[in-house]
Specification:
globular, mainly beta, 1 helix
Length: about 100
């Protein structure tokens, strides 16, 4: 998400998504090492978000910056063929929600 949106990875962030094996929602992201927000979040680099998304488990909430709470809905729609000379990660469809 950080790369696709052009962000600099300067704030804590996580995905909230249902774990298909345990059938419970889990957070995956940047651990809060200072325990400022009292969240036990496993590091995103240790888990593959691709193991969570599927056509039956197609949405997640992405929260960027726990202070400002920039919340985004992320929806898995399909796997597309890798295009030559295309920089990844990338956002293929970005829609703004009305305020």
């Amino acid at each position: 998400m950080q790369d696709a949106m052009g962000w600099q990875d300067g704030h804590l962030h996580d995905f909230l998504i249902r774990n298909p094996r345990a059938n419970v929602k889990e957070r995956i992201g940047i651990p809060d090492e200072d325990n400022e927000f009292e969240l036990n979040i496993p590091p995103g680099w240790a888990l593959l978000i691709a193991d969570y998304f599927s056509t039956k488990n197609s949405t997640a909430t992405y929260l960027y910056d726990y202070g400002d709470n920039w919340e985004h809905t992320v929806k898995f729609e399909k796997i597309m063929p890798r295009a030559k000379e295309t920089k990844y990660s990338r956002c293929t469809v970005c829609e703004s929600m009305p305020s």
